[in-house]
Specification:
Helix content is 34%, strand content 12%. With 489 residues, it is of the alpha/beta class. It is globular and about 70 Å long.
């Protein structure tokens, strides 16, 4: 039996035995954890759980077959009822009463921006007064909203919630738990993979070559559970492209010596399975890094991105899309995190700055996709921990449940609000499950993401693997889309 099974091996002993100490372990391990180089050890059955064997792919994509999805995760819990606002007189009167000092006016200075919604007869809406770019995208048909969506295990009423007569997501209103549940879409817990990772697994098992030389899943924020599958890992990049192993591009000095030491280490054949798997994965990732860096640097854009945070990340996404042919990528899945939305202490000014970034960055990204002639190939969507309470806590709002989200792209049937926007934003009635206006979601995140997965290429028969609870909300293969916000192929 291989000696990895016979005795434990800790990080220090492992590195020392491989000569890794000379490389500088702290910097090396930071890079390795970011690039997730040891994943195949888990997949081989040496970690906590073995991954299932992949099926033999049966087809190869055609060169014109390209699609990308981009998740913008609004970390902290976006107060989305100040992003999408009801303006029908009776509804607006309730909104201003409940929101008090946080309510946006709909006339005069700082007024919310009206949007021309096509599918809400008798009701009118506006968006946050700072989001003029998003207003233009919506009214032109490039953008839509998904109303009052959140994590659910099965359809739930307020009465059922109060009686505890249906299973509920674990640790509702907790940042860490709800972030995890939005990304795994198994709110009852017990899984270590994300829905995008599982989606990549099923697509890779059926179709050859979709991810090209670096793999489908690309993150602008390091590792995340959403993009992690049984067979799938995440390739991490930064706003300037690849995150290189220290010393790879150095011409002299200690970093060059470190990389030379790695090269020597990589040439050795190791008897220990863990060590050999580790060095094999690391070598492959260095090769991926070289290929990605060269392709990224050759994919320059003329579109200017005004925002230096979210905008810089979306510019990197656009450049990676531009490099798709060089990298041989037919499918790309991007994860971008935009933080700062946990606005307990101060909402109005902070959210204005954050949503300025969102609105401008979406417009600039849309223009960049136009420059690349792929607007009809890319769907961009937002996610967040949860919505926030309707009632002000004085200057901000607290953790809640259902919230509103943005979808953008050529495949989006825009200028519409999908799902069910609450008929009234009242306290102590309607969808309020208590504690200052926590709204019960009317649309499960499963429906939201199922539509994206089906557009991306998941077959109805595969949907339950990607979204284990989907049959509680939707019948795959029924012939109708889950929500209808995308033009299906």
């Amino acid at each position: 039996m291989n000696d990895i099974y016979d005795r434990p091996i800790n990080r220090r002993k492992f590195l020392t035995s491989m000569g890794c100490a000379a490389l500088g372990t702290t910097g090396l391990f930071s890079t390795l954890l970011n690039l997730k180089m040891t994943s195949k050890v888990v997949a081989a059955g040496l970690g906590n759980s073995a991954a299932p064997a992949a099926a033999t792919p049966t087809a190869t994509p055609t060169p014109e077959d390209f699609k990308a999805i981009v998740c913008i995760f609004l970390a902290g819990g976006n107060d989305s009822y100040n992003m999408l606002i009801p303006t029908t007189p009776a509804e607006y009167a309730t909104y201003t009463s409940v929101r008090s000092n946080l309510a946006h006016p709909i006339t005069g200075t700082g007024a919310a921006l009206p949007v021309n919604v096509l599918n809400t007869p008798g009701r009118t809406f506006a968006i946050h007064p700072i989001m003029s770019d998003a207003q233009g995208l919506f009214n032109s048909g490039a953008l839509g909203f998904i109303a009052n969506t959140g994590t659910l295990i099965e359809p739930t009423t307020v009465t059922q919630y109060q009686n505890g007569s249906v299973p509920l997501p674990k640790a509702l209103f907790s940042h860490a738990d709800q972030i995890s549940q939005w990304q795994t879409l198994v709110p009852q817990g017990g899984v270590g993979t994300g829905w995008e990772g599982r989606m990549t697994d099923v697509l890779n098992a059926r179709v050859s070559g979709l991810g090209g030389s670096v793999g489908m899943n690309i993150s602008l924020n390091g590792n995340n559970i959403m993009q992690t599958g049984a067979q799938t890992t995440t390739y991490s990049i930064g706003p300037n492209g690849s995150i290189s192993l220290i010393g790879r591009t150095a011409k002299s000095g200690i970093n060059m010596l470190r990389f030379d030491q790695f090269t020597s280490m990589a040439d050795v054949q190791y008897q220990n399975l863990f060590q050999q798997t580790y060095i094999n994965d690391l070598t492959v990732s260095v090769d991926k890094d070289k290929a990605f860096a060269n392709a990224f640097s050759g994919s320059q854009l003329t579109t200017q991105f005004r925002d230096k945070s979210l905008g810089a990340d979306l510019k990197a996404v656009a450049q990676t899309i531009a490099a798709r042919a060089t990298l041989g990528m037919r499918r790309q899945i991007f994860f971008v995190l935009h933080g700062g939305f946990d606005n307990h202490q101060e909402l109005l000014m902070t959210q204005s700055e954050l949503l300025t970034s969102v609105s401008q960055s979406l417009k600039d990204f849309w223009d960049a996709l136009g420059e690349l002639k792929v607007q009809d190939k890319v769907v961009t969507f937002t996610a967040s921990d949860f919505g926030r309470t309707l009632r002000s806590n004085g200057r901000g709002t607290d953790h809640a449940w259902g919230g509103n989200h943005i979808v953008m792209g050529g495949p989006v049937i825009g200028q519409q609000i999908y799902g069910t926007y609450p008929e009234t934003l009242q306290l102590g009635g309607g969808l309020d499950v208590g504690n200052n206006g926590r709204l019960l979601p009317t649309t499960s995140v499963d429906l939201y993401t199922a539509e994206i997965a089906l557009w991306f290429g998941v077959q109805p028969s595969e949907l339950a693997t990607v979204l284990p609870n989907i049959s509680n909300f939707y019948t795959p293969g029924s012939g109708s889309p889950p929500l209808g916000f995308l033009k299906m192929p």
